From TrEMBL:
Disordered, as annotated region: 467-506
Skewed-composition ranges (Low complexity): 490-505
Residues forming coiled coils: none
Keyword Aminoacyl-tRNA synthetase: no
A Gene Ontology molecular function term of the record: sialic acid binding
Descriptive protein name: Sialic acid-binding Ig-like lectin 5 isoform X4
A GO-annotated cellular component: plasma membrane
Span of the signal peptide: 1-15
The organism's place on the tree of life at top rank: Eukaryota
Residue spans crossing the bilayer: 437-459
Length: 542
């Protein structure tokens, strides 16, 4: 019994120096790694035989003097701690259970280093210098977590939650902030999460939302950015108009009317803004229920626009969320097409009429010599009457005075897409003064008479003592766009006289194109009693 008491008193008699030279077991990891701004728990268990009186535990950074330097953590009340670690390093253990575990919160880069454990009792103290641990602090690589919804429907509010589950709740709460172009409002918040209420619209599709987390103790900032996938019905439907490989002539976003020159080729491209992408379909007119589409692609080809293509074309953009329509009305335009003029002798003079069809409707005018007559007007010498209906324009001219040899008369039709004219010359009669004036056509090349014939022709000229009324034979040629058309009116020779004797049918081999000069022999005056016929041969030159 006395020997046991003596052994217990030895540490008191010898003091601390003896305790320091003794070695006691310590269970502690040699190295611990942690990311900046996070928390770490360093597990520790120790063995120390002396527990008489009051006992305390301490953690010091390597190199510290336990007698003078402040510890980084301790369970001793009122003990001054290291300024850098105050409020972040905590000794969680208990001397009686021999637990020396160390908790470090809001770890900073300056915490990197080596640390050792130290104990003190009323009669002894001991530093575990043979068993220390090394703390390594690395940069924070964790990022906030945001569950990304597959789709967000336009106009429907949704909650986005930003959380940092890898942060310990014992540390200083992080600060959350959001950045978004969409309409947002903040929802409920916890220590480690923040909720954003988002109401997306079509313009928010493909935009981003960023959640930023800042750790106030270390100043470290981490963030995560997500891209919004907003679904919405088709909108902003537009039709672009192309001709060939040239750039778009025009892009229409509202129902419009497009004038197009007859015969031109068109490509109509329909586009729409939607998510998911819209199915684009073309219809003729307005699409009714179960209407048949004329094209199921974005491009509608119109290789040659004519009056059959005139009217409305509608593009429909449709996806599961809705549909939108845009119509284009094609108005086919073309230059004047002249009909006439046709002229006839009447009791009070010469009467001519002229008609033209065009889109837009043409204007008609008469050119008499150097004078220009248009509209509806009259005087003692002439009277012009004009009218129009739809694409047609009509005009008539009556001449009672001022007819002279070589006077030219023409009808002109014009609109913004072209012009066309036809001319008539007044020529003097050659044999019968009472026959008045003869109407003839003059070609642009200056020939007196130039005819294109598909048959070998034999003309007969019948001379009568009595003057016959003037009759017209039309030999017309069309000019598309801008040009002229000439008319030839026959002499006072009737068209229904019998063929010359001996004239047989014309063979197929003789049906060739000829140019003929007409030569009329001098007519012999005859009495009314014997209306003999005299024939004159027309010589043709190939």
């Amino acid at each position: 019994m006395c020997l046991l008491q003596l052994l217990l008193l030895l540490p008191v008699l010898w003091g601390a120096p003896l305790a320091r030279v003794l070695s006691y077991p310590l269970e502690l990891p040699e190295a611990v790694t942690v990311q900046e701004s996070l928390c770490v728990l360093v597990p520790c268990r120790f063995s120390y035989p002396w527990s008489l009186g009051t006992s305390y535990m301490f953690w010091f950074q390597k190199g510290a003097d336990t007698a003078h330097d402040p510890p980084v953590a301790t369970n001793k009340p009122e003990q001054k701690l290291h300024e850098r670690t105050r409020g972040r390093f905590f000794l969680l253990g208990d001397f009686r259970t021999k637990n020396c575990s160390l908790s470090i919160r809001d770890v900073s880069m300056g915490d990197s280093g080596t640390y050792f454990f130290h104990v003190e009792t009323s009669f002894s103290e001991h530093s575990y210098l043979d068993k220390m641990f090394s703390l390594k602090v690395t940069a924070l690589i964790h990022k906030p977590h945001i569950p990304i919804p597959e789709t967000l429907e336009s106009g429907c509010p949704r909650n986005l939650t930003c959380s940092v589950p890898w942060v310990c709740e014992q540390g200083t709460p992080p600060i959350f902030s959001w950045t978004s172009a969409a309409l947002t409002s903040l929802g409920p918040k916890t220590l480690l999460s923040s909720v954003l209420t988002l109401t997306p619209w079509p313009q928010d599709h493909s935009t981003t939302v960023t959640c930023q987390v800042m750790f106030p103790t270390t100043g470290v900032i981490v963030e995560r950015t997500i891209q919004l996938n907003v679904t919405y019905a088709p909108q902003n439907v537009a039709i672009s108009i192309f001709q060939g490989n040239r750039p778009a002539l025009e892009t229409l976003q509202n129902a419009s009317s497009l004038p197009i020159l007859e015969g031109q080729a068109l490509q109509l491209l329909c586009v729409a803004d939607s998510n998911p992408p819209a199915q684009l379909t073309w219809f003729r007119g307005s699409p009714a229920l179960n209407a048949t589409a004329i094209s199921s692609t974005a491009i509608l080809e119109l290789p040659g626009v004519g009056t059959a293509e005139e009217g409305e074309f509608t593009c429909r953009a449709q996806n599961p969320l809705g549909s939108q329509y845009l119509s284009l009305s094609l108005s086919v335009v073309y230059p004047p097409q002249l009909l006439g003029p046709s002229c006839s002798w009447e009791d009070q003079g010469l009467h001519c009429s002229c008609s033209s069809r065009a889109q837009p409707a043409p204007s008609l005018r008469w050119r008499l010599g150097e004078g220009l007559l248009e509209g509806t007007l009259s005087n003692a010498s002439y009277m012009v009457t004009s009218s129009s209906a739809g694409p047609w324009a009509n005009s008539s001219l009556s001449l009672s005075e001022g007819l002279s040899s070589g006077l030219s008369l023409s009808c002109e039709a014009l609109n913004v897409h072209g012009a066309q004219s036809a001319r008539v010359l007044l020529l003097p009669g050659q044999s019968q003064p009472r026959a008045g004036w003869v109407l003839g056509a003059v070609g642009g090349a200056g020939f007196m008479v130039l005819l294109s014939l598909s048959l070998c022709l034999v003309f007969r000229v019948k001379t009568r003592r009595e003057t016959q009324p003037v009759q017209s034979m039309d030999d017309r040629s069309q000019v598309v766009g801008s040009g002229s058309r000439e008319h030839q009116f026959g002499t006072d020779t009737p068209a229904d006289s019998p063929a010359p004797a001996g004239a047989g049918p014309i063979s197929q081999d003789e049906c060739q194109l000829h140019y003929a000069f007409l030569r009329f022999h001098k007519l012999k005056p005859q009495g009314r009693e014997g209306m003999d016929t005299e024939y004159s041969e027309i010589r043709t030159h190939k």
